[in-house]
Amino acid sequence: MSLLAVLLAAAGACCNAVSARLQHGGLRKETGGAGLRLGVLLRLGRQPAWLLGVVVGCTGAGLHAVALGLAPISVVQPIGVLAIALSAALSTRLERTRFGPIAGAAVAASMIGTVAFVSLTATTARATQVTPAAALQATVLVGVAVMILCAVGALVADHVRCLVFAAASGISFGYVSLLMRASIQQFADGDGIPWLPAAGILAGILIGGWLVQHAYASGRPEVVVGCLTVVDPLVAVGLGMALLGEGADTSVPTAVAEAACAALAVAGVVVFTRSRPGTGLPIGSAASSGRRLAVSTTGATRTTVTARQTVATQHYDRSTT
After folding, report:
1. Residue 118: exposed, middle, or buried by beta-carbon count in 10 A (0-12, 13-18, 19+)?
2. CA 266, CA 230: separation in Å to the nearest integer?
3. What is the per-residue pLDDT for 305?
4. How far is the C-alpha of 124 from the C-alpha of 254, rounded, in Å?
5. What pLDDT is stored for residue 195 in this prediction?
6. DSSP reduced 3-state for 305
7. How far is CA 317 from CA 4, 109, 120, 136, 279, in A?
8. Which residues lie closer than 8 Å to 136 by C-beta, 6 or more apart?
9. Where is 303: in which H helix or E strand?
10. What is the pLDDT of residues 248-284, one digit of tens each?
11. How many angstroms separate the CA atoms of 115 and 77, rounded?
C-alpha cells in the first residue's frame, strides 16, 4: 500500500505542476499581464487552458488525499515537494531557459527544508482533539494573517505581490487542513454532520483559490507552487502545535531543528522568487520586466533592443552566458 501511496502522491505532484502552468497561462491570456479583476475571473470560465488547469489541480488534490489515506503523512507529504522542481522544469522547457546556480540552490533548499520539517514533525507530534475553541482561535489568527498579507499585496511590486498572495493562499489551505481534521473527528464521534467546520472549509477553499489566482496573475507559476508547497504544511503543523498541543512531547533540540528546516524552506522560496527568469539585471528594472531597454537613433534609422535580445542565454538567476 505504501508503494501505491508513493505513486499516487508523485502523480498528484505532477498534476499540481501542470495545473499551475495551465492556470497561469490562461490568466495571462485574459489579463495581458494586468491585475486580476472579478470580470476577468468570470471570463476565465470560457478559457479552456484555465479550466483544464482547475480540473488537473483538483485531480492532483484527490490523488494526494487518497495517498494520505493509504500511508502515513511522513511518507506522503514530502513527495508533494516534487511539484516545485517539476513546475520549474516545465517553465525552463517551455520558455527555453536554464537553471542558474542560485535558482537551483533555492529550489533544493525549499525542497530539503520542507521534507525535513514534515519528517521531523510527523515523528514527534501526537494526535489531539480539535476543540471548538481551538478552531475559533485558528479562524481568527488565519483571518488576520490573510487580511494583513492582502493589504501588503495591494501595495508592493509584482514579484513580491505574487509571493505575498501565494503565502496568503497557503495559509488558507493550511487552515482547511485543520478544519478537515475537525470534521472527521466530529463525524467519527457521532456528533452528526459538522456544519460549522464544513462552512469553514468551503470558505477557506474559496478564499485560497481566489488568492492563488491573484498570485498567478502577478508572478510565475513555479514561484506560486513553491510557496504553496512550503507554506501549507508549515501553517497546518504550526496551528496543530500552537493551538492543539501536538508538539507537547517535542524536545527542545527537535523543535530547534524543525524551526531551522522551516526557515530553510521559506528562505529557498524567497530567493527563488527573486531569481526568476530575467536578464541578469535587478528585479524591477526595465530589463527584468520585459520592457524596451534602449532606443538609439542614427539619422532615419531607429534600432530597438529588447531585454530578451541582450543575452545569449537566460537563467533563473541573475547570471547570463
Report:
1. buried
2. 7
3. 39
4. 8
5. 87
6. strand
7. 37, 15, 31, 42, 8
8. none
9. strand 301-306
10. 788 899 989 999 999 999 999 989 888 764 333 333 3
11. 8
Gap between the Cα atoms of 19 and 16, Å rounded: 5
Domain boundaries, the chain: 2-274, 278-321
Whose cell is 504553496? That residue is 228
The pLDDT-based confidence of 285 (bands split at 50, 70, 90) is: very low
What pLDDT, in 10s, does the model give residues 39-97?
Answer: 777 778 788 888 999 999 999 888 888 887 777 666 677 788 888 888 888 888 887 87
DSSP 310: G
In angstroms, the CA 174 to CA 201 distance is 10
- Reduced to 3 states (helix: H, G, I; strand: E, B; else coil), residue 292 is strand
315 — phi, psi (to 5°)? -120, 170
Cell of 190: 457521532
Q: Return the amino acid letter for 213.
A: Q
Contacts 24+ apart (CB under 8 A), 251-257: 251/124, 254/120, 254/124, 257/116, 257/120
107 grid coordinates: 529550489
> Which residue is associated with the grid cell 508549515?
234
Write the single-letter amino acid at 61.
A
Q: What pTM was computed for the model? A: 0.79
- Longest CA–CA separation in the chain, Å: 84
Give the integer Cα–Cα distance in Å for 257 and 260. 5
Give the C-alpha distances (Å, rounded to integers) separating 21 from 68, 93, 156, 197, 224: 25, 12, 23, 31, 10
